[in-house]
Design goal:
GO molecular function: 3'-5' DNA helicase activity; ATP binding; ATP hydrolysis activity; DNA binding
CATH superfamily of the largest domain: P-loop containing nucleotide triphosphate hydrolases
Strand content: 15-25%
Strand order of the largest sheet: 2-3-4-5-1-8
EC number: 5.6.2.4
Largest sheet: 6 strands, mixed
Radius of gyration: 28 Å
CATH class of the largest domain: Alpha Beta
CATH architecture of the largest domain: 3-Layer(aba) Sandwich
Helix content: 40-55%
Number of helices: 27
Structural class: alpha/beta
Number of strands: 25
Shape: globular
Protein name: DNA 3'-5' helicase
Organism: Microbispora catharanthi
Keywords: ATP-binding, Helicase, Hydrolase, Isomerase, Nucleotide-binding
Number of domains: 5
């Protein structure tokens, strides 16, 4: 029987076929794997750049392209006959001699570039790579066929022009050198392209190279495994090198923090890390996020990765609020009563005193007192107040403390609590007993051996203290992913300040977003640093995309009615182009706009996801329409602290509103549509 490896490009090609052709292709691939009767057989390709390449007739007028070495077949893509032959003739395949991964080259395109580079070199200019000899370049894995082209380059623009034609493992180290970096810098870029360390590299051993390239090939050992690869989303099977490395590292001696921008694959890493820990069977695993809707989504996605029911039951998926609620309920013997947002707002209105309004007091309570777990006036008097712009002397702090305690007292008297109070109390309950959290001698505590945290940037310090108390300090205790630039709530905390000295790793490449949406989104977000999760600020420097696509569509309308008509027309066009309804989303800032858009689309017979900007958190779609991005709506006026009350808080509010819009816009992996009527939001890039 042949050994079959499937490429993610093949799955993308398969998904683009009509249903009958897709079914025939799947049947043919299954027959080929099992060496069954009527199985397709490899056919040689004339005038090809790689003698190992062949095609398989998989359906009427459709062929698969494979690279063959002995009994190993790497199934690259499926295309109409003529396109498949052209693909097979154009490409060659090799093994990176430095890190041992497989590389794909568009050899014909590179051959066509050579004359233009030669003409450019004749105009003068210093050779771009003159400081490095051929041996230096070969040592960092540069393909020998590429050296003549590199010697013709005289500017970074020449290298940028051929970037789409090069494997990323070739381009990345060369780009580091072209920017003036050292060979050590080039090696750092190259290291980020590998998932496994290779002791010995045989450039002719395709099988070993494929096994070192989890983002390029998945082996189907039998029909069941083939079915799993063909039917599950690609993220279940194919992990890019950093994703694979971080998710599958055997043991982290201290808590780990993975940060990265939109589309860098943080959630995928968290899911696969939770699955790895569950399979290790070293103790209960908690996969946690900040909202129940996201927890439900994570649970469904984890079900796709873990098929073994016994293993799956080792992972609890939830949000911090529910976990805190359960801990307190078990300790007290009854479910705790929660205060409604309206009742809480009324209590703060009653507590307002002098220049300290209800919003100021609420933020002071949540961002200073609860955040630092301050229990007495003396502690509050001595505390720092990071992120708060209004200076308070001792008398003012006494006034604020007494006003806050009035609300706390009223809540206690009514037997009601807020969610952050529950988190703080749950952390205290878990921390009362001393000893192993996994023991049975402490009823009412939530024992976990491992905790994996997604969307970490939106967790409050009280919630972090709860998570720290819920797992023993040991290897592989806390694995955390997040992005301060995608913060949707005003929660800022350095993990070290809550007893979590995490080792940080940073993802720089967005695999979901095309460069056009990414750059537009970064300009919308502001591109500046953001605080939280680590000491100091996290910058967006170096964040980039590898793929290119359409620029965001920004549309202005004369009034709201015309804007809704434009939305309906746009979504209808997307559906006519074959985009599935499940891959389209519409988002707006206000509940009224959400209802209006949902009604307009429903009346047109269109059913797609329509939600608030907050509701887009953690989701992914091919195409996204964000409507109502007008001045006076985004940013939402009632979400902003008055400048005369606290200018620093207002600046944070504006950044939070920017982050909210940024998150919604960066859910689009293919096309983004943004509309407004009247005057545009000041956040929209010029």
């Amino acid at each position: 029987m042949p050994r079959l490896a499937i490429s993610p490009e093949f799955l993308r090609g398969l998904g683009a076929l009509t249903r009958p052709v897709r079914r025939d292709v799947a049947v043919a691939v299954r027959r080929f794997l099992l060496n069954a009767s009527a199985a397709p057989h490899p056919e040689r390709v004339r005038n090809c750049r790689d003698s190992r390449i062949a095609t398989l007739r998989l359906a009427d007028r459709h062929r698969g392209v494979v690279v063959r070495q002995e009994d190993v077949y790497w199934l690259l893509t499926v295309l109409p006959d003529a396109e498949a032959w052209s693909y097979a003739q154009r490409h060659r395949f090799g093994v990176n001699t430095a890190i041992g991964i497989v590389e794909t080259w568009d050899a014909v395109a590179l051959e066509r570039v050579e004359p233009a580079l030669r003409r450019a070199s004749e105009t003068g200019g210093r050779p771009l790579f003159e400081n490095w000899c051929d041996a230096d370049l070969l040592n960092i894995g540069v393909d020998a066929h590429l050296l003549p082209l590199l010697r013709l380059m005289t500017s970074e623009s020449h290298l940028a022009a051929v970037e789409p034609l090069l494997p990323y493992s070739q381009y990345a180290p060369l780009a580091a050198l072209a920017r003036g970096g050292s060979l050590a810098a080039a090696w750092r870029e190259l290291d980020a392209c590998r998932s496994r360390v290779a002791d010995e590299i045989d450039p002719e051993d395709l099988l070993a190279a494929l096994r070192r390239s989890p983002d390029r090939a998945a082996f189907a050992a039998d029909a069941a495994e083939l079915e799993r690869i063909l039917t599950l989303p690609g993220w279940c099977t194919f992990l890019y090198p950093p994703q694979h490395t971080y998710a599958n590292w055997p043991a982290y001696e201290q808590p780990v923090l993975i940060t990265g921008g939109a589309g860098t694959g943080k959630t995928v890493i968290a899911l696969h890390r939770a699955a790895l820990l569950a399979r290790a069977a070293t103790g209960p695993v908690l996969l946690v996020t900040f909202s129940q809707s996201l927890a439900t989504e994570l649970s469904a996605r984890l079900d796709m990765i873990i098929k073994d029911e016994v293993v799956r039951k080792r992972v609890e998926v939830g949000n911090v609020d529910r976990i805190a609620h359960r801990i307190v309920a078990e300790a007290e013997g009854r479910a705790p009563a929660l205060v409604s947002s309206d009742d809480l707002a009324e209590l703060w209105q009653e507590a307002a005193v002098g220049r300290f309004g209800s919003a100021f007091l609420l933020r002071e309570w949540e961002q200073v007192i609860l955040a630092q777990n301050l229990r007495t006036l003396e502690e509050y008097q001595a505390a720092t107040r990071p992120g708060r712009g209004v200076r308070l002397d001792a008398d003012a702090r006494t006034t604020v403390w007494e006003a806050v305690q009035q609300v706390v007292r009223r809540l206690r008297e009514s037997g009601r609590r807020t969610l952050l109070q529950l988190a703080s109390e749950a952390a205290g309950l878990l921390g009362r007993a001393v000893g192993d959290l996994l023991g049975d001698e402490a009823p009412g505590r939530e024992p976990y051996r491992h905790i994996v945290v997604d969307e970490a940037q939106d967790l409050h310090p009280a919630q972090w203290r709860l998570l720290r108390a819920a797992v023993p300090a040991a290897p592989n205790d806390l694995f955390i992913v997040g992005d301060p630039h995608q913060r949707m709530f005003d929660t800022r905390v350095a993990l070290a300040d809550v007893g979590i000295p995490a080792r940080q790793f940073r993802l720089k490449i967005s695999r979901r977003l095309p460069a056009e949406i990414l750059s537009w989104g970064v300009r919308l977000r502001g591109g500046g640093p953001a605080d939280g999760l680590v000491a100091g600020n996290a910058a967006m420097y170096g964040y980039r995309a590898l793929d290119y696509g359409a620029r965001p569509m920004v549309r202005q309308y004369v009034d709201a009615e015309a804007e809704m008509a434009g939305l309906v027309s746009t979504v209808a066009e997307w559906l006519e182009e074959g985009v599935p309804t499940a891959q389209i989303a519409v988002a707006a800032r206000t509940p009224d706009l959400v209802r209006t858009a949902r009604t307009a689309l429903r009346e047109a017979g269109i059913t797609v996801k329509v939600t608030s900007l907050h509701g887009m958190k953690g989701l992914e779609f091919r195409r996204v329409a964000v409507i109502g991005v007008a001045d006076g709506i985004v940013p939402a006026p009632d979400a902003l602290t008055p400048a005369d009350e606290d200018p620093t808080a207002r600046a944070h509010d504006l950044q939070r509103e920017r982050g909210l819009l940024y998150v919604a816009c960066t859910r689009a992996g293919e096309l983004l549509y943004v509309s407004y009527s009247g005057r545009a939001s000041p956040f929209i890039p010029a």
